[in-house]
Structure formats: structure tokens, C-alpha cells
């Protein structure tokens, strides 16, 4: 099942501090820990900032890290981790 099927929500931009802030076209902001993947966890802020949106905003490529993450994967992660935290 595709979480984003029939949904036009896309990633618009990212910002970084001690977490990754993902700004969506819907106006929502998703926040991920840096340990979302091992490559992101070990990255410097400069490496994180070298990203580009891919596939019209349904994913992010981190050039310096050779790492890709998808909006579908982020939503799945948030759904499972937010349920576990409740």
C-alpha cells in the first residue's frame, strides 16, 4: 500500500539543528532525529545541508553522504514511532 497514493503532499525544504525538520507542501512539519539513518547520524551540518529534493519532492538525496530518504519512509517511521511513544 502506498501511503502517498492520491496525495499531492511533497517535501518543500529541510532545516537542521539537533534534529531534521521537514517542511511539507501541506503546511505540516515533520521532525526526525538525526539517528533516522546511520549516515545522517554521523553527518556534519554542512554535509546535511548538501541535499536536493528528488522525484518532485517525494524524496531527498544527501549528496555528500550518498543517502536517500523518502517521504513515504519518513511517514511510516513517524507513524510507528509516535504510536510506540503513546
Please, could you describe this protein's structure?
The chain has 86 residues and is an alpha+beta fold. The chain has one domain (11-85): NE0471 N-terminal domain-like, CATH 3.30.2020.40. The chain contains three helices and six strands, in the order E-E-E-H-H-E-E-E-H. The strands form two sheets. Strands 1-2-3 form a three-stranded antiparallel β-sheet, covered by helices on one side. The protein has a three-stranded antiparallel β-sheet with strand order 4-5-6. The radius of gyration is 13 Å and the shape is globular. The model has no long low-confidence stretch (mean pLDDT 90). InterPro entries: DUF2442. This is DUF2442 domain-containing protein.
Strand content: 25-35%
Give the mean pLDDT.
90
Beta strands, count: 6
Helix content range of the residues, please?
25-40%
Using only C-alpha atoms, the radius of gyration works out to: 13 Å
CATH superfamily: Uncharacterised protein PF10387, DUF2442
**CATH topology type:** NE0471 N-terminal domain-like
Number of helices: 3
Task: Please state the second-level CATH architecture.
Answer: 2-Layer Sandwich
Low-confidence stretches: none
For the record, what CATH class applies?
Alpha Beta
Q: For the record, give the distance between the C-alpha atoms at the N and C termini, rounded to a whole number.
A: 24 Å
Could you say which structural class the secondary elements and strand pairing correspond to?
alpha+beta
Q: Shape from CA axes?
A: globular
How do the strands line up in the largest sheet? 1-2-3
Number of domains: 1
Biggest sheet, in brief? 3 strands, antiparallel
- The string of secondary-structure elements, in order, is EEEHHEEEH
